[in-house]
Input
Amino acid sequence: MIRSIRNIARLLSIARTLARHDALFMLEVIGVAPAVVVAARLLSRRRQPGRPGQRLARALQEAGPSFIKLGQALSTRSDLLGEELAADLSDLQDRLPPFSGGRARAAIEAEFDTPVDELFDSFDDTAIAAASIAQVHFAVDSDGREVAVKVLRPGIEEAFTRDLDLFLWVAELIEVARPEWRRLRPVESVQTLADTVETEMDLRFEAAAAAEMAENFADDPDYSVPQVDWSRTGRRVMTTERVGGIPLDDHDAIVAAGHDPLAVMTKAAETFFHQVFRDGFFHADLHAGNMFVRDDGGIAAVDFGIMGRVDEATRRYLGELLVAFLSRDYRRAAEVHFEAGWVPSHRSVDTFTQACRSIAEPILDKPQNEISIARLLGQLFKITETFEMETQPQLLLLQKTMLVAEGTGRKLCPDANMWLLARPLIEDWMTETFGPEARLRDAMGGVTNTITRLPELIDVAERGASMLADGRLRLHPETVRALGGGGARRGPPVALWIIVALLVLLLFLV
Output
């Protein structure tokens, strides 16, 4: 009861913020707490310019850090909000006014129990960037290296805990009030957001993600990740080497620096391909502020707070799906959905093939540089209700990342398409990973594994024989009679006893 009262009061406050921006339609759509909506309209109502998604984005920006993250998460749900509204939310900027340098220093000193002046030779009190969860300061460490220091906002953990409980409460109400939306997994989606935010608020996890990404690209001269200073990194503070370069979407500056935008675009596309398909671990916040073109034309990435993972099976289905759509093989695109279990088996493959064609043709028929695979996936997610498709959380984050990457790519090189640039890599990866030779390698690997375990199996056999000989292993009398041919003979051959014993032992010991 106390939780409900607290959340109703909080929801009323948020509703008033939405009303000020003429964005109460969001609460009206989900159909929960209608009295709160009515009260908010009576208390505050004002016409605001812009599309509904733009008004909602401004309201969420005003509501604070948790709601900015909620808006970013909702931007992946074109199946729920519609394509235009989701696209407007994808432009929601994760920016807030910075907190003071003095508070940043206090947070650093509390984290390491050491004065800032002992950790750094110099520390710039003016933040270079400020977002919903943390802000970044430039500094020079005690060894004279230029570094970037990321510091969590004071009190951010408590604020997110309070707001995430509100989101979960609303999601629970939605599942009760709107049973038809249960297939969209609102409670599970909020929990996924909570897990993501929890990871973001421990900067050691971000540091570990950066280190993992650096290992994945250790042999790639075209992509670099800033080195983590683990001695100056903790739960609320992270220190890395400072990265410089030209923002990836600054076409004119990149050309002025003597770089070929198409070459840079190709490197970016290949890098994203390797992250998703080769490693199954990708940077999920690929806006231009997080990617820079180095002096040598390579790409440097920063900010690894939001990362995505894709398991091997999903990578295979996604690779086949992309190739099928780019080849306009809609039958194969439909079959992939059924093989992956994304569409229930009782639905019609033929009808879903027709749906794939109806969605893809308008997109693929555009000029090459305007083809958006991310938009295509978003359209597919919108037909979930018709074909009883369940939401795939691992694909929602990827689709949102693809959408942002496409937008950045168009600013960098308006005449190119990152997916067509990456298509040969995807096809080669599919052949190498899942083709006949790959299946043969897997089979040979299984044989090799069995041969390697042969001494272990022989040891098991010897133990089985020993247990049989001294009476520690006994079979049920019915089994003995069955093996002996129903009592026609006094007992089975000794060899058969040993085989049976081995089978039993292998079941329990191997």
About this structure: The first strand starts at residue 120 and ends at 123. The chain has three domains: 2-94+158-197, 243-440, 453-509.
